[in-house]
Amino acid sequence: MTPEELFTAALGLGRQWRVAQCRFEGEPKRLELRLEHVPGEHFECPHCRALCGVHDTIERRWRHLNFFQYRCELVAKVPRIWCRKDGVHQVQVPWAREGSGFTLLMEALMMVLSAEMPVDAMADLLGEHDTRLWRVLMHYVEQAHAKSDWSTVRRIAVDETSARRGHRYVTTVLDAENSRLLLMVEGRSAETLGAFAKALREHGGDPSQIEAIAMDMSPAYVKGATEHFPQARIVFDKFHLMVLAGQALDEVRRELQREGTPELKGALWSLRGNTWNLTQERQEQRKNLCRQYTRLGRAMSLRETLQAIYASPERQVGEAELQWWCGWAARSRLSPFRTLAKTIRQHWEGILAYFDTRMTSAAIEAVNGVIQLAKRMARGFKSFVYFRTAAYHRAGKLTLAVPTIA
Questions:
Q1: Do 357 and 346 contact (CB within 8 A), yes or no?
Q2: How many other CB atoms are found less than 10 A from the CB of residue 122?
Q3: What DSSP element (H or E) covers 32?
Q4: Gap between the Cα atoms of 379 and 381, Å rounded
Q5: Considering only CA atoms, which of 16, 17, 12, 19 is closest in space to residue 34?
Q6: Burial class, 59, CB count within 10 angstroms (exposed 0-12 / middle 13-18 / buried 19+)
Q7: 109 near 405, Cβ under 8 Å?
Q8: What is the pTM of this model?
Q9: Three-class SS of residue 217?
C-alpha cells in the first residue's frame, strides 16, 4: 500500500476522491495532502440532486488534525458543476462543511477543547488566530440554539449579570425548572423581556404559555413582564429581598460607626450573612455586639425574623407574619428598615407570590457563576456576540451537531 492509498483509506474519502500526493516539507515541517476527484466522476447538483459533469475547479485548503506533532493540511481542486436547471455550483466536499477552512474532524476537536479552556488558550495550542476559532464555535452554538425547542417552558427566571467593567450589563433568561439558559441580551431594560417574547415564538412557544417569572424588583423588568407577559405571575426573588435586608443592617452598622463605636471596626464579616456560615469566633462576636448596641441588636433581629418568615408553610401564614413584620419595622426607629418595610408593601403581591410558587432565582445565580466562567473563556472577547456564544455553549444545555472523532 502506498502512502497515498493509506491516507485515502484513513481519511474515508469515498469513491469520488483520493489522495494524489503527500508532501512533508517546510520549516517548521508540515504534512500537506493533495486530494483530487476521480476523473470522469459526476457530482450531485446541491439544489435538484441531478448528476452533473465537472465545469471547472477551484483550489481550496483546509486545516486537518495534526499528523503526530506536525501540522496537517488538505488541499484540493474542488469541482464546480454545471446543471442545466440551476446553473454553475461548487460541489460540497465530504470532509468539511461549506465555507469552513477546517475539516469536520478538526472542528470536532475545537468544540471538545472549547468546553475545557479559553478560546485564546485554544488558539495558542492549535496555532490558529482566535477569530477563526470563534467562527467555528459560533456556527455550531448558534445552529444548536436556533433549533432548541421552548414549547414546554412554563416558568422563567430573569436576572442581570455584568458583561464588562464600567456598568455594562446583560440580561439572562433561564428556564426556572431545569436551569437552562434560554436567552442573553444586552442591557437591562423592559425591552429585554420583549426580546425574549419574540425569541419564544421563534422557538416554538408563545408568551401566553409563561405562567410565572422570578425576578428582582427592577422597575424595568416589572414593566417588561407586564407588557409582554400580562398573564404571567411576577415573583419577586426572596434572595434579593434578603440582600436588601442585609444592606439595611449594614447601614445601621455604619450609622453607629459614624457616631464613634471602635468595637465595630473589623466586625463587618461577623455581622454579614447567616449565622450558620460563620465560625464560632465570629458568632460570639456577633452576639456580643448585638447585646452591646441595642440598635444593632434590633436590626439583626429584624433581618433574621424576615428570613424565618420565608420558611412559612403556606401563603396565609406567611402573609400574616409579613404584615406583622412590616409593622414592627415601621415602629423600630431604624430608618433603613422603615424604608425596607415601605418597599415590601409596594411590592406586596410579587413577594407573597413566592409562598404559592416557591420560585427563586437561586438557579439563575448558580448559572451566573457558569456565565462568568464563560466570560473568562471568552476573555478579551471583541464583541458581545462572543460572550453570548460562550454563555450558550456553557449554560444553554444545547445539543451540538458536531461530528464525532472516531
A1: no
A2: 20
A3: strand 30-37
A4: 5
A5: 19
A6: exposed
A7: yes
A8: 0.85
A9: coil
With cell 435538484, the residue in question is 48
Beta bridge partners of 30: 25, 71
Identify whether the C-beta of residue 235 lies closer than 8 Å to the C-beta of residue 353: yes
* CA–CA separation, 394 and 374 (whole Å): 6
Task: Report the C-alpha gap between 121 and 266 in whole angstroms.
Answer: 41
**Residue closest to 256 by CA, chosen among 283, 298, 296, 286:** 296
C-alpha cell at 34: 493533495
Q: pLDDT 10s digit of each residue in the chain, 406 long? A: 788 889 988 888 888 899 999 999 888 899 999 999 888 888 888 888 888 888 888 999 999 999 999 999 999 999 988 888 888 888 889 999 988 999 999 999 999 999 888 888 899 999 999 999 999 999 999 999 999 999 999 999 998 887 766 557 899 999 999 889 999 999 989 999 999 999 999 999 999 999 999 999 999 999 999 999 999 999 998 889 999 999 999 999 999 888 887 777 778 888 888 888 888 988 898 898 899 899 999 999 999 999 999 999 899 999 999 999 999 999 999 999 999 999 999 999 999 999 999 888 777 777 877 877 777 766 656 688 888 998 999 899 999 998 765 5
Beta strands in 152-305, from DSSP E residues, in sequence order: 155-164, 168-175, 180-186, 212-215, 233-236
Instruction: Quote the CA–CA distance of 27 and 30 in Å, as a whole number.
Output: 8
One-letter identity of residue 236: F
What residue type is assigned to position 290 of the chain? C
Longest dimension (CA), the chain: 96
- Would you call the peptide bond into 28 cis, given omega within 30 degrees of 0 as the criterion? yes
DSSP state of 208: G
Residues 124, 34, 406, 101: is their CA dihedral positive or negative?
positive
Judge whether 17 and 33 are in contact, CB under 8 Å.
no
In angstroms, the CA 300 to CA 287 distance is 10
Say how far apart CA 19 and CA 241 lie, in whole Å.
Answer: 67
Is residue 242 within 8 A of residue 361, CB to CB? The reply is no
**Domains defined along the chain, listed by start:** 1-98 (no CATH), 147-236+361-395 (3.30.420.10), 239-357 (no CATH)
